[in-house]
Every structure is written in C-alpha cells, then in structure tokens.
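Q: What would this chain look like folded?
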Amino acid sequence: MSWDDARARAALRQMFDAAVASADPRRVLAAHLPPKPTKGRCVVVGGGKSAAVMAAALEAAWPDVALEGTVVTRYGHAVPTNRIEVIEASHPVPDANSQRGAMRLLERVHGLTGDDLVIALMSGGASALLAAPAPGLTLDDKQAINRALLASGANIGEMNAVRKHLSAIKGGRLAAAAAPARVVTLAISDVPGDDPAVIGSGPTVPDPTTFADARALLARYGITSSPAIAARLNQDADETPKSGDLPHSAFHTIATPLMALRAAADAARSLGLTPVILGDALEGEAKEMGAVMAGIARSLRAHGHPAAAPAVLLSGGETTVTLGANATGRGGRNTAFLLGLAVALGGLPGVWAIAGDTDGIDGMDDIAGAILTPDTRARALAKGIDARTALAAHDSHGFFDAIGDALRTGPTLTNVNDFRAILIA
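A: My prediction, written as structure tokens:
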C-alpha cells in the first residue's frame, strides 16, 4: 500500500498516542506499589504534571488504606481525589502556590515515626511546582533565576543542579525531613537517562551535585544572580544529602521515555513500518538536532540505512532552545526541532514527521508540537511565511499554527519527555 499524506499523518499521530498511553499512571502505577502498610500512617506527597492523576490512581488501587497527604500539579492538570489534597501551581516559572504547595509537603512529613510510610509521587515539572526557597531567599529570587536558566540553553540536569541548592525541599531534603519514616518514591521520568536525582530535582534521593557545581553553571552560562542567591550558593556547609544519607528512602521508576518509544515502535510495526529507535536521551540545540535527523532520514531514503523504507526513526530526550536577540515569536523545542528539520530536508518527498511533548505542552502555549509534511515549506511560502525567518525569530508555534499543522492534545496528565518520529516512505 502506498503512503499518501493522510495515511502518513494518521500513522504519526497513532505512534504519538501510543507513546503517551504507555505512560498513563492509571495503567501503570498500581503494579509498582509497595505492600500495603499494616501500622502507622500512610502519607502521600508529590509534585509534577502527573501528580494529581497519580494520586487518583493510588486511591483507586488502595481503597482500604487510610491515605492522607498533598500533591502539587500544574494549573489545569488536577483530577478529582477523595483523600489526597491537590494544589495547582504555575509551570515552568513558579508562583505563590508553588511555594505554598512545597511548604505543605514539608508540613505533611514533619514529625513522622519509623512506623509511618511516605509515598512520594514525582513526575516532570516538580522542580518548578515545588518552590520552597532556602533560608534567605524569596520566591522572587527563585522566579528570576528560573527565567534566566530557561533562556540560557542549559539542559534539565544543569538547571536542576542550581535549583536544588536554592531549595528547602529539593535534592533529597524532603526525604530528610520525613526521617525516620520509610519513603517510597514512584516516579515518571521526563529526563534523559532517567536519573532519579534529576527527576523533579530529586526531592527524595541523594544529590550528587554541589554548591560549587551550581556556581560554576551560572558562570558557564553568563547568568548574573541576585546578591541573595550569590550568598546562598556560597553556603557550602548546608550541602544537600549525599549517598548514604537517606537509608530509609527507596526509588522506583514506573514510566520512562524508552518505554514510550517501545510502545510507539509496536504501533509502527502494526502499520507496516520498520521502527528504528535512535535513543531516548538525545540532547542538544533543537534546530541543530533537526538538521542531524534530516541527514539520517536522507541516508535511509537513499541507501536503506539504517533500515529499509518504509521505516520510522524514533527518538526521545530533551533538546534546548537558546533564545537570541531576534526571539520575537512563540515557540517550543519540539516545533523548533521540526523547523530545523524542514529547512534541512528542503521539501524532500516521502518524508513526514511529528514532534511533541508528551505532557501536551511544548513551551508556554497550548501547542503540544506539530506535524511536518513534504510540502510544509511550500504551503507556508504560499502564505508569505519563510521557514528560515521563522526559525531565526523563534516563531515555530506561529509557523505551524499558520498552516494548520500545530498539534493540540490538551494536558495528557503524564510526561515522559519529548517524542519525535520521522516517517520515510
């Protein structure tokens, strides 16, 4: 069967949906729960874009357990719960509710005993949603440094190394506050490599980074901090918990980017495509990643390497977008990737692509990502829009919106990082 535009678009969307569904907490969380507690309290805390739906899934799995606690999620991501409090807050820049929610979590774990169990539900977005400023800092300080980090081109691990050392809850401090209670963390990974210390800035796990690392990162990216932040980052004596400091804390990942890619690969096979998983932890500047992927697509189309067509190149991870002086538009890393891909492909026939954030939000808008077709640039030029100009202005959302190819899913209530698929027919 030949591949036309309608068939290719439908196939790409089916793979994206399969990836998202594989990380739905309502499907996967129950299998990872510890034995039900037989004594003591069971306190639930959590943060992230999936925190509320994870809490609801836990309530459904343990209807006979006296659960109590609080989770913090992004505005618009709450779902009904009966026993666990849900607070909505701002992402990616924290607000007053982010601070209130983080302090509420610290209150929940205060004064527990060795008979008590804490279940921590962590997912992508927790770093911004749990904003408990360290002593001497204000929420304004944290908001300013967060904005600077987001615009710097720093990757998620680098940003979190700074955030941990400005926080009263990140970098293992939540688990330390819960001692001597047993802490079991169930996490949905949205970071390359699934490092527990990076997911949500690791509130319940030891932190391998230091104050010195945080200072070096700000210097590397040329970020000038406020006097209060500079003073905090010089308090080496108040270091975050390190390896061996949290013996009562266990960590389990329940959904990951690789699991999502494997689900998409299964969907691809069912559609008659050969899937090639290039990796789940690809990082780098979004537009440059697009150019690299264009080269792989050209090789596959011309030489049948690394697979024979029809095939699909699948990848995950988190690219970055460094904002320049011409950043006057709207965009996100997935649509920037697709614009870079479009420019590099130059309208190559027989190649379609989709890229989107599995949480349903690419950047700051309601756009999850977009679909690229062989005639994307031609259709845009017919409307007076040039792909290179849009890329330079960081207006990738505006570009794909104008030609009707922006992908809108609404909040998916999960987050296993970015999903990219390039279909070569």
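DSSP finds 16 helices and 14 strands in the chain.
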